[in-house]
Amino acid sequence: MAESNVAAWPSSKPEQEQEQELEAGLLKPETKQPLPLPQVSSQRRNITDQLHPAFYIAFWITTSSGVILFNKWVLAAANFRFPLFLTTWHMTFAAAVTQLMARYTNLLDSRHKVPMDIETYKRAILPIVILFSLSLIGGNLAYLYLSVSFIQMLKASTAVVTLLATWAFKIVPPNFKVLGNVSLIVFGVVVASFGEIKFHLLGFLFQVCGIIFEALRLVMVQRLLSSSEFKMDPMVSLYYYAPACAVINGALMAVVEVPRMKLADFASVGMPLFIINACVAFLLNVSTVLLIGKTSAVILTMSGILKDILLVASSILLFGDPVTGQQFVGYTIALGGLVYYKLGSETLQALAQETTLKVNDVRQNHPARLRYAIVASAFFLVTLLWFFLGTLAP
CA within 20 to 30 Å of 319's CA: 19, 41, 54, 370, which one? Predict the structure, then answer.
């Protein structure tokens, strides 16, 4: 399953989950006076409330990157050239797990707040499901022809295509100042594309189609499901999307891939790895719910940028994907434009001011800790730069 299965949801600023307060009212039998509230009871929280936000960021980056690298390995390295089967398997697994969760747990109880019937499903959900399936198929087909690093560079343009789609559907009025801001992303992607050594036109077209379908899906989500009664977290959305996606992808798979499938193709991967692959894809949805619920939109955006950088580095290390100096420059420009477009100048200024205040506070109260942090950061940046420069293709 391509990363776009969970790439973005219709929320400019995700709502934070509210902590439930615990009641305590123990009484002494003889006096009937309330006992003092124990210290431990004020800290009795769900395990997810006790974890540091860095855990959710790391969990999301690991699962998101893991799905992409795992899919690339299955489709290319293991020579299992059936991307339609892979997406159908992921959706079937997700449908089965979400159905079990809905039946035996209360984790998907928020679905009862969504007014859903057959007519609403056909009008609001089915068009999104079709676009979702097409984006997954296009994205996975691209892995057969393109490197992970180049695909990630192309995905930087998803924000631009989504913006243009919102203008085309008249969801928001055109803003040429915003268009000027996103032009930096387009320029960076173009520079990176012309620098790609293993360029494959068919793979490029598959990825472009996947980006277009994903952008249209996001627009449909924003247009049809952004009202308060239709707001759904990624897990509830998966509960509704997965069965229909499995059917649509399965029908395409039966026509395109089943006639040329052999048992030897499945033996090259093995059922245990197929199960692990589906579990990692499902955990991506879980990590998305946790990241949205426990952090902010700014953290989500910055985590996505960090994930893209780590993915490019991982693809170079694991698959030997060549990256030219021109691609390095182009992708850096695209990422810079993406950060500016998603966060805006005001947010970036606020982050800079907050960072300055924290640095000054640490410098005054913990000077040794600041020196260690500077040395570690410099070492990390030098190592990362050395790695990229050492792997740049001529």
Answer: 54
Q: Residue-wise over 104-137: b if at least 16 C-beta within 10 A, else e?
A: eeeebeebeebeeeeeeeeebbeebbbbbbbbbb
Residue 27's beta-bridge partner residues? 34
Please answer whether residues 60 and 308 qualify as being in contact, where contact means their C-beta atoms are separated by less than 8 angstroms: no
Residues ≥6 apart with Cβ < 8 Å to 200:
145, 146
Give the C-alpha separation, 102 to 167, whole Å.
Answer: 37
Question: What CA–CA distance (Å, rounded) separates 235 from 133?
Answer: 17
Chain segment 354-384, per-residue pLDDT in tens? 777 777 777 777 777 777 777 777 777 777 6
The rounded distance, in Å, linking the Cα atoms of 372 and 362 is 11
Indicate the burial class of 151 (C-beta count within 10 angstroms; 0-12, 13-18, 19 or more).
buried
Q: Could you give the residue ranges of the DSSP H alpha helices within 257-321? A: 263-267, 271-294, 297-319
- Number of C-beta neighbours around residue 176 at 10 A: 7
Looking at the DSSP bridge assignments, the partners of residue 323 are 392
Please state, in angstroms and rounded to a whole number, the distance separating the CA atoms of residues 136 and 149: 18
Q: Which amino acid is at 341?
A: Y
pLDDT tens profile 245-301:
999 999 999 999 999 998 888 988 989 999 999 999 999 888 887 887 777 666 777
Q: How far from chain centre, in Å, is Cα 109?
A: 23
- Say what angle helices 271-294 and 234-256 make with each other, to 10 degrees: 150
Strand 392-393 to 323-324 pairing: parallel
List the end-to-end C-alpha distance of the chain, in Å, as a whole number: 32
Pick from 381, 382, 391, 380: nearest CA to 327: 391
Token couple for 190: 């173009």
| Joined tokens for residue 322 | 């060549």
363's CB contacts (< 8 A; 6+ apart) are 370
Q: What is the spatial distance between Cα 8 and Cα 14, in angstroms, rounded to a whole number?
A: 11
The DSSP letter of residue 258 is G
Q: Which amino acid is at 243?
A: P
